[in-house]
Write a structure and sequence with these properties.
The chain is α+β, with helices and mostly antiparallel strands and about 160 residues long. About 40% of the residues lie in helices and about 20% in strands. It has a 4-stranded antiparallel β-sheet with strand order 2-3-1-4.
Length: about 160
C-alpha cells in the first residue's frame, strides 16, 4: 500500500466526521470529483486501510464494563497456537505481538470481577502460555484515534 496523501487525509477526516456520507456528499463537501472519491474509497477497501465497524461498538454497551490488559509470555514454538486460542475467546478484543519482557499484549473485557478471574484462568490454561500479568483499565483517557494524524497529513 502506498502512503496516504493530503487529499486522502482530508477525505478520511470528513468520513470520520460523517461516516454515513455518500460518495457524492463527500465529493461536494471537499470540492473533489465523485470519481476521485469513489476511486480512493475502492483503493482503501482493497488495501484494507479502513478497519471494521465492530471497533466502534463500546464493550460497556454490550454488558462488559471491565477491561484489562494481560501481558503474556509464551513458548515461542507455540506462538501461533496461542494466538489462535486467544482469538477463539470472545472476550479477547485485541492481541498485539510485543518486544521486551512480554510476548503478547492481550486486551480482554469482562462483565465483572468473577468473569475477569475466569478469563485470566482461561488464558493461563492455553498450552504454550507460560505466565501472565494483568492490569485493570481504570479509565480510558485517550481512546483509539487517527484524526490528529490525518489532520497533520491534510495540512491542518
Amino acid at each position: 500500500m502506498t502512503t496516504l496523501d493530503a487529499t486522502d487525509a482530508r477525505l478520511l477526516l470528513e468520513l470520520s466526521r460523517n461516516p454515513r456520507a455518500t460518495g457524492v456528499e463527500l465529493a461536494h463537501r471537499l470540492g473533489l470529483s465523485r470519481n476521485t472519491v469513489q476511486a480512493r474509497l475502492a483503493r482503501w477497501d482493497r488495501a484494507e486501510v479502513l478497519s471494521g465497524f465492530d471497533r466502534l461498538v463500546a464493550p460497556r454497551a454490550l454488558g462488559y464494563p471491565l477491561s484489562a490488559y494481560v501481558a503474556t509470555v509464551v513458548d515461542q514454538h507455540r506462538l501461533d497456537d496461542v494466538v489462535d486460542a486467544l482469538a477463539g475467546i470472545p472476550e479477547v478484543v485485541e492481541v498485539y505481538g510485543m518486544t521486551g519482557l512480554t510476548d503478547l499484549s492481550v486486551k480482554i473485557v469482562a462483565t465483572d470481577a468473577d468473569d475477569l478471574y475466569r478469563l485470566a484462568g482461561q488464558i493461563l490454561k492455553i498450552p504454550g502460555v507460560e505466565r501472565t500479568n494483568m492490569a485493570l483499565v481504570m479509565r480510558e483517557l485517550v481512546g483509539p484515534r487517527t484524526a490528529p494524524l490525518l489532520a497533520r497529513i491534510a495540512g491542518r
